[in-house]
Design brief:
NAD(P)H-dependent oxidoreductase; 5-stranded parallel β-sheet; globular
């Protein structure tokens, strides 16, 4: 079974290190045989999570689109920046809205059910955004996703990538390979999709 993996970055800033990290992960996942879909959260703008807004207008359409994407994939790889040693607001807001989805029309929909998740981070600092992944891991596990243990943090991100987007540092490349390999293995195990 070829696992379907959804990849996105937790930042939409032009030239964001997390975008480069997501691109590197996408390449590695494809090399390892996954069917990869790369999206940008810029294409799914959402209001700030507000239960009064949800009660008045329902789940935003972009949250529904993302929930369907999550549910339609076996795995998810998130490449996140670190804001004040935690999760960037864009990413947290997105994950929170998707967690509110329980059904699609009359059919039940659990976007985080049986979803394997791999985490990467990036920062120009020495920690490579790793502190934010602690909180991100907790949020995703609380939503019901299964987050794989290996993770990849890219420090010194401004100079971490070759012109073709490959990680220069061997240790970081090895970590990326391990995250992707573990994610693919776990996604295969958890998948409920029926191959046609």
């Amino acid at each position: 079974m070829i696992p379907k993996i959804l990849v996105f970055a937790g930042s939409i800033r032009t030239g964001a290190f997390s975008g480069k990290t997501a691109d590197a992960a996408m390449k590695e996942l494809a090399i390892q045989g996954a069917d990869v879909t790369r999206i940008s959260l810029e294409d799914y703008p959402l209001p700030i999570m507000n239960q009064d807004l949800e009660k008045e207008k329902g789940i935003p359409e972009n949250a529904m689109k993302l929930a369907r994407l999550f549910a339609g994939h076996d795995g998810l790889l998130v490449a996140s920046p670190e804001y004040n040693a935690s999760i960037p607001p864009l990413l947290k807001n997105t994950l929170d809205w998707v967690s509110r989805v329980r059904k699609d029309g009359n059919a039940p929909l659990g976007p985080y059910d049986n979803l394997a998740v791999g985490l990467c981070s990036s920062s120009n600092g020495g920690f490579g955004g790793a502190r934010g992944l602690y909180h991100l891991r907790a949020v995703l596990m609380n939503c019901g996703a299964e987050v794989v243990t290996p993770q990849c943090s890219v420090s010194g991100a401004a100079d971490a990538f070759d012109e073709d987007g490959t990680l220069k540092n061997e240790r970081q490349r090895n970590l990326m390979e391990k995250v992707c390999r573990t994610l693919i293995e776990r996604a295969r195990m958890l998948s409920t999709r029926v191959e046609v």
